[in-house]
Design a protein that fits this description.
Length: 320
């Protein structure tokens, strides 16, 4: 399936909940969100599976489950099994904060998950508890080890670059890739919903991070990769840089997003959404047409780095 700009769209991110078991400072207010999506508006497993089946018929072969925190959704292992059984779906990934991963990794692997992305912005237990408002770093580290043990590899660690908070740890994260097949990815802080925090954290471009570590050497990126990948000389892992603001990668964008309340977002950095709850009541052919129409509403590139206002939805309602 191609959009109007001849980009091949073969990847769908599906948010299965807007709820989370952490309250990260750049994502949520201290008391969480009072406007969480009512449960009756959240897509059911049957609706998610039907959309996955339709998407697969149009050429989507990779699905990533996100949240909020996807592992808090009751029955997620059953949902993964359903999606794994869909003809044409070749890869299922999960983006998680890792808190619940140690206890679930084995079941996730057996159900059909092939890899995980784990969000972790610091390796210091006290700083982790502070940025997440109470999270336990040891649980995340245990989740990383469990993912490696059951073969959810290569594990990708997502590190949001936060000036004044974790920039003194960039070297520690990079060093993790020397002796282990881990991919550490630095992500520029994006102005999305509550994360539009002004001076709360300093913006650090990935170009600036890379300039601090001249020993990193470029390596070939994965097809349609959103990151520019590097490696320590002789290192087993990789270091990736996701530069959505300073050097956007829109020309190679191959994805659409489905929110937990059934909205297709053709572009993360746009308020344009297409409600799929109605099309889910239509015939299979009409549903396929609705998905095609959604893909054709993808824009050529976002305008954040040209001064556009940040989008209104918070990230937990869109999906990471």
């Amino acid at each position: 399936m191609k959009d109007h700009f001849e980009r091949v769209i073969d990847y769908m991110r599906i948010s299965i909940t807007d709820r989370c078991n952490l309250r990260c400072r750049y994502c949520m207010p201290a008391d969480g969100f009072t406007n969480i999506i009512p449960r009756e508006q959240i897509l059911s497993f049957e609706e998610i599976t039907r959309l996955a089946e339709a998407a697969a018929k149009l050429g989507i072969h990779k699905i990533r489950l996100t949240g909020g925190e996807p592992l808090v959704r009751h029955g997620i292992v059953d949902l993964i099994s359903r999606i794994h059984a869909v003809e044409g779906i070749h890869e299922i990934g999960i983006t998680t904060n890792g808190i619940l991963l140690a206890d679930m990794a084995d079941d996730l692997k057996k159900a059909g998950v092939s890899r995980v992305n784990i969000s972790i912005d610091t390796l210091d237990p006290e700083k982790y508890a502070s940025i997440t408002r109470g999270g336990k770093l040891d649980k995340v580290l245990a989740g990383i080890e469990a993912a490696k043990r059951v073969g959810l590899t290569p594990v990708k660690l997502n590190v949001v670059a936060l000036g004044g908070f974790n920039e003194d740890e960039f070297g520690d994260f990079i060093e993790m890739t020397r002796n282990e097949d881990i991919i550490v990815r630095f992500i520029e802080l994006m102005p999305i919903g509550h994360a539009d925090l002004g001076d709360s954290y300093g913006f650090i471009s990935n170009k600036e991070i890379l300039s601090r570590f001249p020993e990193l050497v470029p390596v070939e990126n994965e097809k349609y990769s959103v990151s520019d990948d590097f490696q320590l000389p002789g290192g087993k892992g990789k270091v990736g840089f996701i530069s959505a603001l300073s050097n956007h990668f829109c020309s190679s964008c191959n994805k659409i997003r489905l929110t937990s309340d059934g909205k297709i977002k053709p572009c993360l950095h746009s308020n344009d959404e297409i409600d799929m709850k109605g099309p889910l009541t239509l015939s299979d052919d009409e549903l396929l047409e609705a998905l095609r129409a959604s893909v054709n509403r993808k824009v050529e590139h976002h305008l954040l780095n040209e001064g556009a206002a940040p989008i209104e939805r918070d990230m937990n309602k869109i999906g990471g």
